[in-house]
Amino acid sequence: MNDTLEAMMLQDQERTDVNLIPRPQTDDDIPLSRTTSHSSEESDTANFHGVINAINFDALASVALQARLACGTQCSQSKSQQELSIEIQRPPWTGSNNLVYGIEFSDGIKWVARIPGNGIDSFDSLEVSHFQNRIHVSRFLRLATSIPIPEIFTWSSDCKNSVGVPYTLESFAEGRLLSEAWIDNAWSSEEKRIRTLRNLARVMSELHGFSFDKIGSLAPDLKVGPDVYMAFDQDKLLAGEDLFGHAQKRGPFNSAMDDLLEGFEEPEAVDGQLNQLHGEHALLSLALHSLPSLLHLNGPFALGHPDFNYQNIFVDVEGNITAIIDWDGTCITTRALAFARYPSWITRDWDPVMYQYGGEYDDHTDEGLREEDSPAQLLRYRQEYASALAEMGMPPSKYMPEDTLLSPIIEAINIAQGQSINRPWILMWLLYWAFDGIPPISLNKFCQKYERGEAHDWIDLVKEAFSRMWHGEERDVHEYEKRYLRFRQWMMSYPDSVVVTSCS
């Protein structure tokens, strides 16, 4: 890592910890904040009532004003605190795990306050570590790249601060969420969509410059530390508890296989019943062990966005990237799962249970909104994205086209390992892909034979097919669409399929 950059990063960290956390003022000094409203369903904030009730909005306004006055050039037109007033937008925007309150100063400058939903429930040392990781990563990437990431002006990870909850105060992400723009016929033309993808590839290619010897998370000292992530207890979640998860720690790892196989254990048997999960686990194990060495499984490793999807990307009217948000849990991993991967919304066909093209479950059917992109469109977008990355001139030691072209396969395997609902459908697609559209056995037939101890020949056959599946997709987008639709027909054609029966 560049010594000057490291020194800047460590200096910035020291300044943040010591000087930029505002001390609470006396009651006489705290200006009253006004609030504005935007349309929001009550259900949007239902899970956040506890943390919302804990927020001291007057203290939040005071902290924001103090931080603003410490920001130098942005305050050149406002010489004193008395010359500024503030509005806090209420109710807030909500994500899965965070509240975001818009903040507007009287001179037109906009910020946001980002508050974690679990800021009053737990927030032990691991939660604090997870919270602070995004701050360290965001500040590092703002120093080291031109990736448009909101600036974090000040923050607190203390639940007992004057605001009452942990928070970050950061710059407002200008533009429009790509998740909204992409499906809006009034905004999105094919030309604009492709321009957006190519701009995104250019932005993400900047991450190729950082190499690491382990898999994990970027620590404040710029070394690789354990990956701290948010896990969920499914039983508690169904009971309305553990809504925002709890922090856990894993790694760091010396290889991608060590990472992927961590916690990959045989499911427990079910007495007196054929257990489909055993066969699924066996197939997934074969897929995992088929990963080729050209994916740099033993390093060097690279940075990537932890949730590289369009709900975390803002664009302007021309399709240029204006902000990339939510770097919580930023990953250091093999390049095909890091900066070189495709954005998630153009690989939806590789996760069949989530992909609703051409079915009764299409969720974008309102007037003026597009439905799901077709398989042909998705492949065309992948081709454009891969082409844009290849044009960035990255050295072969830092990037190879195969890192991108093979990323849908390893991403699908990674999803199947972590998501039991997605797993059987992904396994069916991998079987179809590996056997070039002519799979000799259905998923459920394999699972039944495996449970009876009769699958030895099938295991050898699948193992050989999986070893051959690591190749790029065909160039003809129309042929690919025909192939994918044949897969959908094959997937739904087995009356013995427990998966299809239970989900259709």
From TrEMBL:
Domain Aminoglycoside phosphotransferase: 90-361
Highest taxon of source: Eukaryota
InterPro entries: AGP_Transferase, Aminoglycoside_PTrfase, Kinase-like_dom_sf
Family matches, as SUPFAM superfamilies: Protein kinase-like (PK-like) (SSF56112)
Gene3D superfamilies: 3.90.1200.10
Chain positions covered by the region annotation Disordered: 1-44
PANTHER family, sorted: AMINOGLYCOSIDE PHOSPHOTRANSFERASE DOMAIN-CONTAINING PROTEIN (PTHR21310:SF51), AMINOGLYCOSIDE PHOSPHOTRANSFERASE-RELATED-RELATED (PTHR21310)
Protein name per Swiss-Prot or TrEMBL: Aminoglycoside phosphotransferase domain-containing protein
Pfam families: APH
